[in-house]
Amino acid sequence: MARTTRDTAQRFIPLHASLPALRKARAAAPLVRFIRAGTQTVFGEGSPGAPIMFVGEQPGNVEDFSGRPFVGPAGKLLDRALSDAGLDRAQIYVTNAVKHFKWVQRGKRRLHKRPGSLEIVACKPSLEAEIAAIAPQAIVCLGATAAQALLGRSFRLTQQRGQFVLSPLARLVTATVHPSALLRMADAESREREYGLFVRDLRTAAGAVRRHARPGSTRAAS
Predict the structure, then answer these.
(1) Integer CA distances (angstroms), 110 to 61, 65, 103, 113, 155, in order
(2) pTM (2 decimals)?
């Protein structure tokens, strides 16, 4: 069965909307019928003039209760990596491909469940509207789900990590691992090595933005 705008957030998204208008529209919209989600919509957050937008997979348990993206364990690791890469979180924008926490119950815990194509398609209009409102110079996809949501299912993070790819979404578009992948590593040595590679990817993206900044522009990555 073909999907229509009734199956997505499209019908709730005002055309050419500002970030406040998008946030208000998403907060007022009911969940699309096939999403079993958490307690609320978790919209993006950050500078409306951000030169770099980071797009993750979906909010986690902490984000679901707080209503803010990247404030749980993965968000704290991202903050550390941003600082090590010379980036100021206050000057960037962070969001997710899917705006709701998808989970399964395990005892008293709500455990992350990877979103499927229905959830990704349903939330894509919101993500595209955010990108249009921010108009970032660069987009960094965090993890394979975010990368495939924006760049297509043929994108392979294992092969194309850290590479800049052509996209109408922004002048510079690249992908790296999601910080939660580092947290799942049991071996401390591997985790530290991969963290270094993660910081390298963020630093590369920031450097590319600085090189491509127009003369006189105030939107270069800090």
Answers:
(1) 7, 12, 6, 9, 30
(2) 0.88
